């Protein structure tokens, strides 16, 4: 009798422990990404680190991961990932050298790069040759895509290089140059941050992007599990797009 009672007591205790521990929230696994400052998409001073950071965070949360973002200058962000100090980095374009070191997610963002101009001097860009008829301003050490880079390198167009976007838009407003190439949402964000509403009204952009780029988060191939993690991330990202949540978050920064 005592033995049966003891067994029943043990059984009740075990069930109680199972219930107690199962009621505790399961802590999410953490993934650390090194990223660069790229407002309005990502930034250490932006709400929730920016719309793209929110998208990445929600997609990873859907598959049980908590994301920690570490902000660095872009070159150092890549270096941190290459040295294995973080799990991955973003956002990056696909290149052969990067694909040898990292697994790539599906595109997290399609960048749309356009030509900004002063409305008092709208360029007529009806052909590739027409590009050569205008003067440009661009950022130091910045690539504008293979086609544009090639004609810049061949000195077929005149591009003034400056250190920041504020200088570039300033030259455009003074009609010292005809065109400033920049990612569309980034360009308008910078105009809102640094210039008056009156100045903003003077700036327009050519509707057709001269370049579209897909940007990805990348995880190190040193950890083979990262391939499966990104596969699950891609599925979560697709669910966000299908539900409309992706567009809802991105709409916060697509303001023209």
From TrEMBL:
| Regions annotated as coiled coil | none
Q: Which InterPro entries match?
A: Solute-binding_3/MltF_N
| Protein name (Swiss-Prot/TrEMBL) | Solute-binding protein family 3/N-terminal domain-containing protein
Q: Which UniProt keywords apply?
A: Signal
Q: Which family does it belong to?
A: Belongs to the bacterial solute-binding protein 3 family.
Classification lineage: Bacteria, Pseudomonadati, Pseudomonadota, Gammaproteobacteria, Alteromonadales
* PANTHER family, alphabetized: ABC TRANSPORTER SUBSTRATE-BINDING PROTEIN (PTHR35936:SF25), MEMBRANE-BOUND LYTIC MUREIN TRANSGLYCOSYLASE F (PTHR35936)
Q: Where is each Solute-binding protein family 3/N-terminal domain found?
A: 38-252
